[in-house]
Amino acid sequence: MSWTPPSKFTVILSFLLLVGGFYILIELFFNLTGVLPVIGFAGFTNTESWAIIALAIIFFSWILFYLGVQLKGL
């Protein structure tokens, strides 16, 4: 299996998603600006809900970058 460099769009999008996910996590733990609205779903608290969203965004950014490397033209 050969390595192919991902497109610039894939690299930029996965980087922005990764930064956004880390921003949410940093905002949760250090409460720098307090810009996150109060949400809660499926019985989770506000912090747990945002942590799940942030981890899903970080996971999606890694999957997107992996697919960009493995699939040609992505």
Question: What is the 3D form?
Answer: elongated
Number of domains: 1
Average pLDDT, all residues: 88
Q: Give the count of helical stretches.
A: 2
How big a fraction of the residues is strand? under 5%
DSSP strand tally: 0
End-to-end separation: 16 Å
Largest sheet: none
Q: Order of SSEs, N→C?
A: HH
Rg, Cα atoms, Å:
15 Å
Low-confidence stretches: none
Structural class: mainly alpha
- Helix fraction by DSSP (H/I, runs of at least 4): 55-70%
What tags apply to this protein structure?
74 residues; mainly alpha; 2 helices
Structure report:
- This protein has 74 residues and is mostly helical.
- It has two helices and no strands.
- It starts with 7 loop residues before the first helix and ends with a helix.
